[in-house]
């Protein structure tokens, strides 16, 4: 049944929030101050009509907005959108009684996303390739994507054709497409086991389309050109499905902030190092010990260092930092630490850093809630929080990155 609601604020996921007698009601694609009609189901509602629009409402950039599930908030004016993302970080810190002026958000430009995860499935109507509608399993095939680099958008029809060639399942599967210096790297997951003929046909297609690589569930099917990305001035041949920051600009901004903070450190520990986006840049001035649980990523980092010139020593260690964090005694060998964990954060590792004497720490996070938790641990351990910089690299989504810089007076030994 449709009813009338007044939106009071934006929720953490970008939904408009209406206050009702039975609690908060979340209505997507609405803005504070708007009066809307919506069909309610428990604590969520589907918007039907906007009766009174907010002056901050703008036309969305994409024809698929509200359908594809990829973007949550294209309809909000840019300055208000930036303020909302900034405040997500500030509110998370406030929830842990952390007092710090949060810097202005570093914005994200359209058409800069270099790594996109599509969902594909064969249906009676043909191959579908796109994004999953919010709170649904329905795949919305797309014809444009204003967040993504043009190199990806230009190949959408070819990527759909490739999905058709490799599909060996009735279920949906993921296709991660990354723009590299060598071309598109396509990493597929759960598409089923390829037959020999499928493998041959798909390989010929990859070569004909100029793609750099096709891998399925970690196995390289064909690699005409080794996919390479550049961290600073260092070329890295990334493994299939390797984690990369969503945009090059955000990666460089984070590296610049961390690099300035750790410039005085002679020895740095890079925790959750990945393929080396921080480690290889920091090695221009500091010795770096890179710690990462993924063997392929660590191998790529080590290989890049060995073929590079002009870097100080980089050592690497494969280690699951969730199960076995570096201890405070191990950390005391370093002058600086940078850690960039997954969304779950680094609670146990933060407890060890808090007990250490490391004078300079940079915490990087894509989740303000777990970042605030980890910063509270560090502050309680004697660190002073010097700055927090929010960075938008997930345009028009609820996600926001942040870099926090901390210092602790080093004890005399």
UniProtKB/TrEMBL annotation:
| Keyword 4Fe-4S included in the entry's annotation | yes
Biological process (GO) annotations?
rRNA base methylation
An annotated Gene Ontology molecular function? rRNA (uridine-C5-)-methyltransferase activity
- Gene3D superfamilies hit by this protein: 2.40.50.1070, Nucleic acid-binding proteins (2.40.50.140), Vaccinia Virus protein VP39 (3.40.50.150)
Q: Which UniProt keywords apply?
A: 4Fe-4S, Iron, Iron-sulfur, Metal-binding, Methyltransferase, S-adenosyl-L-methionine, Transferase
Q: Name one Pfam family in it.
A: tRNA_U5-meth_tr
Cite the InterPro entries for this sequence. MeTrfase_TrmA_AS, NA-bd_OB-fold, SAM-dependent_MTases_sf, U5_MeTrfase_fam
Q: Where are the catalytic residues?
A: 366
- Residues that, per the record, bind S-adenosyl-L-methionine: 245, 272, 292, 340
- Annotated family: Belongs to the class I-like SAM-binding methyltransferase superfamily. RNA M5U methyltransferase family.
Under PANTHER family, the record lists: 23S RRNA (URACIL(1939)-C(5))-METHYLTRANSFERASE RLMD, RNA M5U METHYLTRANSFERASE
**Name of the featured protein:** RNA methyltransferase
**What is the protein's species of origin?**
Mesorhizobium mediterraneum
């Amino acid at each position: 049944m449709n009813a009338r609601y007044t939106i009071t604020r934006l929720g953490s996921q970008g939904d408009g929030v209406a206050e009702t007698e039975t609690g908060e009601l979340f209505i997507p694609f609405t803005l504070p101050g708007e009066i809307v009609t919506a069909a309610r189901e428990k604590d969520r509602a589907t918007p039907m009509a906007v009766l009174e629009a907010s002056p901050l409402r703008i036309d969305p950039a994409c024809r698929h907005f509200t359908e594809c599930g990829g973007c949550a908030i294209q309809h909000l004016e840019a300055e208000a959108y930036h303020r909302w993302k900034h405040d997500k970080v500030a509110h998370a810190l406030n929830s842990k009684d952390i007092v710090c002026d949060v810097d202005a958000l570093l914005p994200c430009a359209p058409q800069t996303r270099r790594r996109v995860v599509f969902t594909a499935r064969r249906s009676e109507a043909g191959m579908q390739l796109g994004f999953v509608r919010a709170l649904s399993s329905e795949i919305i095939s797309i014809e444009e994507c204003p967040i993504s680099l043009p190199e990806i958008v230009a190949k959408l029809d070819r990527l759909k054709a490739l999905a058709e060639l490799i599909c060996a399942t009735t279920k949906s599967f993921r296709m991660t497409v990354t723009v590299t210096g060598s071309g598109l790297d396509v990493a597929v997951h759960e598409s089923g086991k390829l037959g020999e003929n499928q493998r041959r046909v798909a390989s010929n297609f990859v070569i004909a389309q100029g793609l750099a690589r096709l891998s399925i569930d970690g196995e390289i099917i064909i690699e005409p050109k080794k996919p390479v990305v550049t961290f600073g001035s260092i070329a890295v041949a990334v493994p299939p499905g390797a984690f990369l920051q969503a945009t090059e600009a955000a990666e460089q901004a984070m590296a610049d902030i961390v690099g300035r903070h750790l410039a005085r450190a002679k020895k740095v520990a890079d925790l959750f190092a990945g393929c080396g986006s921080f480690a290889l840049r920091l090695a221009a001035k500091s010795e770096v010990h890179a710690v990462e649980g993924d063997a392929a990523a660590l191998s790529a980092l080590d290989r890049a260092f060995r073929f590079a010139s002009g870097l100080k020593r980089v050592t690497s260690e494969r280690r699951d930092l969730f199960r076995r964090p570096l201890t405070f005694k191990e950390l005391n060998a370093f002058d600086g630490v940078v850690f960039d964990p997954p969304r779950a954060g680094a609670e146990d590792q933060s407890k060890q850093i808090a007990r250490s004497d490391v004078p300079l720490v940079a915490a990087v996070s894509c989740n303000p809630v777990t970042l605030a938790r980890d910063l509270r641990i560090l502050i309680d351990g004697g660190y002073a929080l010097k700055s927090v910089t929010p960075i938008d690299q997930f345009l028009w989504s609820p996600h926001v990155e942040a870099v926090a810089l901390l210092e602790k007076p080093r004890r005399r030994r």
